[in-house]
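Q: Here's a chain of 134 amino acids. Please give me its 3D structure as tokens.
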Amino acid sequence: MPLDIRNFPLVWMSYDEAPDHDHDEDFAALEASFERGAPFVILTDNAPTEDHDHSHEEKKRTALWMKKHKAELRTRVRAMIVIEPNSAKRLAFRTFGVAFAKFWGFPLKLALTREEAMKIAENLLSEGVESATS
């Protein structure tokens, strides 16, 4: 799940990864985002397919990393926004969203288009700014 943090606070995630992809780079990118000290959103326009699976070792490594960074995940990541034009797939993600939020500690939001995703991201990121300035 390569991450692009160049447009922080918009962190783009891709599920198009090479077989030899180094997930440590992904964790390092998330940690670098945490170190900025500001909230951010994760966006993707190529959500995983049903055949996207992780090995037992990857799942274990992810769980250990998440346990170590639980507080940052809950306080820094406003949401993951999945851009999905297919209504049937959006419905499946909506069902999956409850388990996702429990596991990761932040909500899964759905958008029909990239433009809608940007509006959702803007609203989520401005929530913290408004409360800080009020």
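Q: Can you summarize the key feature?
A: The chain is about 55% helix and 15% strand.
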